[in-house]
Write a structure and sequence with these properties.
Elements: H1 6-14, H2 30-36, H3 50-65, H4 83-89, E1 95-98, E2 110-113, E3 117-121, E4 130-138, E5 148-155, E6 159-165
Helix pairs in contact: 1-3, 2-3
Length: 167
Amino acid sequence: MSTAKLPEALVEAALPEVGVTEVNSSNCGPRVDEYKAATWLNPKLGWPWCAAFVCWCVKQALTATGTKETKTFKRPRTAGAWDFENWSKAQDKSTSTKKPHRNDIQRGDIVVFKFSHIGIALSAPDAKGNVRTIEGNTDGAGSREGGAVLKKTRHVSKIRSRIRFTV
């Protein structure tokens, strides 16, 4: 189990957001636009925001732990779920990317899904291979275009990679 501060701070940032929804299926809304402002893209335009939610959570976790960006460590600002892998690999040893993940997922890991979606792990896989997550822009059916921040349960077979903070 990791002794790093950021993974738990990431979970603590995400948990209070469960239940936030966009307005009128627009990919926008007061809180959703705050998530999107954590990326490089214009937060007032409607675009899929699952990765923006994770960017926002990372930003909050960095603040909560007093972790500063450096020349070799920058927080993610991408709106692309799969692009998180590139972001992580470009960092110093503050992150660790594993693809394939080999079922070693832990609470606080960023999980990148095979269907171009992303979330934050709340648990390691259970005996059946299910991982509990918090995800932005999903719904009860598990869509990647769902419009809400929700807790989900996903099977490890749906996960493309995991990114773990080591600080």
